[in-house]
Amino acid sequence: MRAALAELAEVGYVGVSMERIAGRARTSKAALYRRWPDRAHLIVDAYLRFVVDDVDIPDTGSLRTDVILLLRQLTDLVGSPVIQMLHGLLADAGDNGELRKVIREQVTHLKPMLMREILERAEARGELRGKVTARQATVPIDLLRGEILLRDGVVSDATIAEIVDEVFLPLVQA
Protein backbone atom coordinates (compact mmCIF):
# COMPACT_ATOMS: atom_id res chain seq x y z
CA MET A 1 0.00 0.00 0.00
CA ARG A 2 2.77 2.43 0.87
CA ALA A 3 4.45 1.71 -2.45
CA ALA A 4 1.24 2.48 -4.32
CA LEU A 5 0.79 5.78 -2.47
CA ALA A 6 4.41 6.72 -3.01
CA GLU A 7 3.99 6.11 -6.74
CA LEU A 8 0.76 8.11 -6.80
CA ALA A 9 2.41 11.03 -5.03
CA GLU A 10 5.48 10.87 -7.26
CA VAL A 11 4.05 10.38 -10.75
CA GLY A 12 0.26 10.80 -10.48
CA TYR A 13 -2.25 8.16 -11.46
CA VAL A 14 -1.39 8.34 -15.17
CA GLY A 15 2.24 7.40 -14.44
CA VAL A 16 1.46 4.61 -11.99
CA SER A 17 1.85 1.06 -13.21
CA MET A 18 1.55 -2.28 -11.48
CA GLU A 19 5.15 -2.94 -12.53
CA ARG A 20 6.42 0.25 -10.83
CA ILE A 21 4.43 -0.50 -7.66
CA ALA A 22 5.69 -4.10 -7.59
CA GLY A 23 9.28 -2.90 -8.01
CA ARG A 24 8.95 -0.35 -5.23
CA ALA A 25 7.27 -2.91 -2.95
CA ARG A 26 9.82 -5.58 -3.83
CA THR A 27 7.16 -8.04 -4.88
CA SER A 28 5.80 -9.40 -8.15
CA LYS A 29 3.06 -8.03 -10.37
CA ALA A 30 1.33 -11.40 -10.00
CA ALA A 31 1.16 -10.89 -6.22
CA LEU A 32 -0.52 -7.53 -6.76
CA TYR A 33 -2.99 -8.93 -9.29
CA ARG A 34 -3.98 -11.70 -6.88
CA ARG A 35 -5.28 -9.01 -4.52
CA TRP A 36 -6.45 -6.25 -6.90
CA PRO A 37 -7.89 -6.70 -10.39
CA ASP A 38 -6.23 -3.54 -11.73
CA ARG A 39 -4.27 -0.45 -10.75
CA ALA A 40 -7.43 1.63 -10.24
CA HIS A 41 -8.61 -0.70 -7.47
CA LEU A 42 -5.14 -0.88 -5.92
CA ILE A 43 -4.59 2.89 -5.89
CA VAL A 44 -8.04 3.76 -4.58
CA ASP A 45 -7.85 1.02 -1.93
CA ALA A 46 -4.43 2.25 -0.79
CA TYR A 47 -5.62 5.85 -0.69
CA LEU A 48 -8.77 5.08 1.31
CA ARG A 49 -6.88 2.93 3.82
CA PHE A 50 -4.45 5.81 4.26
CA VAL A 51 -7.34 8.21 4.94
CA VAL A 52 -9.01 5.82 7.38
CA ASP A 53 -5.72 5.31 9.23
CA ASP A 54 -5.35 9.10 9.47
CA VAL A 55 -8.73 9.56 11.18
CA ASP A 56 -9.29 8.68 14.84
CA ILE A 57 -12.92 7.80 15.45
CA PRO A 58 -13.92 9.81 18.54
CA ASP A 59 -15.46 8.10 21.57
CA THR A 60 -16.58 10.76 24.05
CA GLY A 61 -19.81 9.11 25.17
CA SER A 62 -21.93 11.61 23.22
CA LEU A 63 -23.21 11.23 19.66
CA ARG A 64 -23.19 15.00 19.14
CA THR A 65 -19.63 15.48 20.35
CA ASP A 66 -18.32 12.44 18.46
CA VAL A 67 -19.79 13.62 15.15
CA ILE A 68 -18.54 17.18 15.66
CA LEU A 69 -15.02 15.90 16.42
CA LEU A 70 -15.06 13.59 13.38
CA LEU A 71 -16.16 16.42 11.08
CA ARG A 72 -13.46 18.70 12.50
CA GLN A 73 -10.82 16.01 11.78
CA LEU A 74 -12.06 15.64 8.22
CA THR A 75 -11.98 19.41 7.76
CA ASP A 76 -8.45 19.56 9.12
CA LEU A 77 -7.35 17.06 6.44
CA VAL A 78 -8.20 19.56 3.69
CA GLY A 79 -4.76 21.14 3.38
CA SER A 80 -2.89 17.91 4.01
CA PRO A 81 -0.95 15.79 1.50
CA VAL A 82 -3.79 13.26 1.76
CA ILE A 83 -6.18 15.68 0.11
CA GLN A 84 -3.61 16.85 -2.42
CA MET A 85 -3.30 13.21 -3.54
CA LEU A 86 -7.09 12.99 -3.83
CA HIS A 87 -7.20 16.11 -6.00
CA GLY A 88 -4.60 14.57 -8.30
CA LEU A 89 -6.45 11.28 -8.38
CA LEU A 90 -9.74 13.01 -9.22
CA ALA A 91 -8.09 15.11 -11.92
CA ASP A 92 -6.63 11.96 -13.48
CA ALA A 93 -10.05 10.28 -13.27
CA GLY A 94 -11.55 12.86 -15.65
CA ASP A 95 -11.08 10.76 -18.80
CA ASN A 96 -10.85 7.37 -17.11
CA GLY A 97 -14.28 5.80 -16.67
CA GLU A 98 -12.94 2.78 -14.79
CA LEU A 99 -11.07 4.95 -12.27
CA ARG A 100 -14.14 7.18 -11.74
CA LYS A 101 -16.28 4.08 -11.16
CA VAL A 102 -13.85 2.62 -8.61
CA ILE A 103 -13.55 5.95 -6.76
CA ARG A 104 -17.34 6.30 -6.64
CA GLU A 105 -17.83 2.72 -5.38
CA GLN A 106 -15.12 2.92 -2.73
CA VAL A 107 -15.99 6.40 -1.43
CA THR A 108 -19.60 5.25 -1.14
CA HIS A 109 -18.39 2.64 1.37
CA LEU A 110 -15.94 4.93 3.18
CA LYS A 111 -18.41 7.51 4.45
CA PRO A 112 -20.70 5.08 6.32
CA MET A 113 -17.61 3.25 7.58
CA LEU A 114 -16.32 6.44 9.22
CA MET A 115 -19.65 6.89 11.00
CA ARG A 116 -20.37 3.23 11.82
CA GLU A 117 -18.53 3.02 15.16
CA ILE A 118 -19.97 6.32 16.35
CA LEU A 119 -23.50 5.23 15.46
CA GLU A 120 -23.12 1.76 16.98
CA ARG A 121 -22.04 3.27 20.29
CA ALA A 122 -24.83 5.87 20.15
CA GLU A 123 -27.34 3.08 19.52
CA ALA A 124 -26.02 1.11 22.51
CA ARG A 125 -26.45 4.24 24.67
CA GLY A 126 -30.02 4.71 23.42
CA GLU A 127 -29.28 7.99 21.61
CA LEU A 128 -30.89 6.95 18.31
CA ARG A 129 -34.56 6.59 17.49
CA GLY A 130 -33.94 3.48 15.42
CA LYS A 131 -31.65 1.98 12.82
CA VAL A 132 -29.77 4.64 10.86
CA THR A 133 -29.54 3.96 7.13
CA ALA A 134 -26.27 4.30 5.22
CA ARG A 135 -27.64 7.39 3.48
CA GLN A 136 -28.60 9.00 6.80
CA ALA A 137 -25.18 8.14 8.23
CA THR A 138 -23.44 10.01 5.43
CA VAL A 139 -25.48 13.22 5.70
CA PRO A 140 -23.03 15.08 7.97
CA ILE A 141 -20.03 14.12 5.81
CA ASP A 142 -21.86 15.04 2.59
CA LEU A 143 -22.89 18.42 4.01
CA LEU A 144 -19.35 19.01 5.23
CA ARG A 145 -17.98 18.21 1.77
CA GLY A 146 -20.33 20.81 0.30
CA GLU A 147 -19.15 23.41 2.82
CA ILE A 148 -15.51 22.60 2.11
CA LEU A 149 -16.06 23.08 -1.62
CA LEU A 150 -18.02 26.30 -1.18
CA ARG A 151 -15.67 27.84 1.35
CA ASP A 152 -12.30 26.79 -0.08
CA GLY A 153 -11.68 24.35 2.75
CA VAL A 154 -12.37 26.81 5.58
CA VAL A 155 -15.26 25.53 7.68
CA SER A 156 -15.93 27.09 11.07
CA ASP A 157 -16.77 25.21 14.24
CA ALA A 158 -20.14 27.00 14.20
CA THR A 159 -20.91 25.59 10.74
CA ILE A 160 -19.96 22.09 11.86
CA ALA A 161 -22.22 22.47 14.92
CA GLU A 162 -25.09 23.62 12.65
CA ILE A 163 -24.66 20.56 10.42
CA VAL A 164 -24.85 18.30 13.47
CA ASP A 165 -27.46 20.16 15.54
CA GLU A 166 -29.83 21.39 12.85
CA VAL A 167 -29.70 18.56 10.33
CA PHE A 168 -28.11 15.32 11.53
CA LEU A 169 -29.34 14.97 15.11
CA PRO A 170 -32.99 15.79 14.26
CA LEU A 171 -32.73 13.15 11.52
CA VAL A 172 -31.49 10.31 13.74
CA GLN A 173 -32.60 11.10 17.28
CA ALA A 174 -36.02 10.56 18.79
From TrEMBL:
One of its GO terms (molecular function) is DNA-binding transcription factor activity. Transmembrane segments: none annotated. The keyword Transcription applies. It comes from the Bacteria. Gene3D superfamilies: Homeodomain-like, Tetracycline Repressor, domain 2. Residues 17-36 bind DNA. The keyword Ribonucleoprotein does not apply. Pfam families: TetR_C_11 (PF16859), TetR_N (PF00440). Residues 1-54 form the HTH tetR-type domain. InterPro entries: Homeodomain-like_sf, HTH-type_TetR-like_transc_reg, HTH_TetR, Tet_transcr_reg_TetR-rel_C_sf, TetR_C. Keywords: DNA-binding, Transcription, Transcription regulation. This is TetR family transcriptional regulator. It comes from Actinocrispum wychmicini.
